[in-house]
Amino acid sequence: MNWLELLIKKMSPLSERAEFNSSSRIPRRSFLNQGAKCAALISLVYGGFRSGCLALDDEFAPLFDGKSLKGWKKSEFSGGNDVRVEDGVIIVEAGEELCGFQVEGKFPTDHYEFEVEAQRRSGLDFFCTITFPVRDRFLSLVIGGWGGSTIGLSSIDHHDASANETTSQRQFKDKVWYRIRLRVSGETIQAWIDNERVVNLDTTGKELSLRPGEIEISCPFGISTFRTEAAFRNLRLKRLSHPSP
Q1: pTM for the full model?
Q2: Residue 100: its pLDDT value, please?
Q3: Do residues 84 and 92 lie in contact, with contact meaning Cβ atoms separated by under 8 Å?
Q4: What share of the chain is helix, strand, coil (3-state, %, to 5)?
Q5: CA torsion, points 80, 81, 87, 89, in degrees to nearest 10?
Q6: Phi, psi angles (nearest 5°) of residue 51
Q7: Could you report the per-residue pLDDT of 43-91, keeping only the tens digit for each?
Q8: Which of 170, 211, 214, 220 has its CA 20 to 30 A from that of 138?
């Protein structure tokens, strides 16, 4: 469902009740309440377009139109390679080290969920590292690092994704699509690959930081690879109206 369909869906209670005659009148309070909701929604849509990041509460909104990098830009890593759209997906060529892309404009810092489908095309290191905000700090969710199989968050208490409580291992195949979902809500950070939860971290009392180096260029939100060619599609964002349990 695109933003226009969402807008129509949210406005439908008002539009359906806006036509009335003398025998069927809308209570003034109900009409005003619906009008206020529509005004708020229009404000949200306008604000979303200005920031380049539109998402309604608890509903996914697309962040990639399948045709261009609108809303995104290539990350200026030294030794990076080409980032382009081809056949409806974003292609990140293998760089000398890091290569990737990042949002243009604002991005939520809490109570959000991001989803992307990623595919390693060639290479033996991470094919999808998502660098993301956690309120006033940043972390990276590493998928397929350290030889192609490590999953985890960098960094927790100054320990990177290969050596902290979020570390796990999984084998990935080339040219297979993996659905990756990341949720940031209050003190909880969670991540899934397909239907398997791979991260479930309570950040209370923990030091959150990025691994030192060029990954900081990805802030506030970006996706990168390391000496690996990868493809990405179906990038979506959801704003969460209720914190994770």
Answers
A1: 0.78
A2: 98
A3: no
A4: 20, 40, 45
A5: -10
A6: -85, -15
A7: 444 444 334 455 556 799 999 999 999 999 999 999 999 999 999 999 9
A8: 170
The type of residue at 165 is E
- Would you state the pLDDT for residue 55? 53
CB 63 within 8 A of CB 222: no
Cα–Cα dist 165/204, whole Å: 14
| Structure tokens given for 186 | 């209050």
Residue type, position 18, single letter: A
Q: How far apart are CA 179 and CA 230, in angstroms?
A: 13
Residues of the chain with pLDDT under 70: 1-57, 243-245
Strand ranges (DSSP E) for the chain?
61-62, 72-74, 83-86, 89-92, 98-103, 112-122, 128-134, 137-145, 150-154, 168-169, 177-185, 188-193, 196-202, 222-226, 229-239
* Contact (CB, 8 A) for 57 and 241: yes
Q: Quick one: angle between helices 3-17 and 28-51, nearest 10?
A: 170
**Is the Cβ–Cβ distance between 103 and 112 less than 8 Å?**
no
**145 HSE (CA, 13 A, CB side):** 22
Report the run of H or E that residue 49 belongs to, with start and end: helix 28-51
The sign of the CA dihedral 61, 67, 73, 77 is positive
Let me know the angle formed at the C-alpha of 9 by 4 and 15, rounded to the nearest 5 degrees.
105
